[in-house]
């Protein structure tokens, strides 16, 4: 598969179900997968972060900082 080519649905599903792409069974790490939020092993449970994708990790950190800032601002106004 070429760099600019999108993987098929079957390939994406295979990656998600492959135990070698999960660290300790709960952290998804697949450098080939460019999705920011791939589905969890059990899809109905939502999404996870692909820790092999720097954009994904930065998005997660940004979201955490945003929510922490909101909590601080709410507490400050009380």
UniProtKB/TrEMBL annotation:
The chain crosses the membrane at residues 56-74. Residues 31-56 form the DUF5808 domain. InterPro entries: DUF5808. Keywords: Membrane, Transmembrane, Transmembrane helix. This is DUF5808 domain-containing protein. It comes from Flavobacterium commune. The lineage of its organism: Bacteria, Pseudomonadati, Bacteroidota, Flavobacteriia, Flavobacteriales.
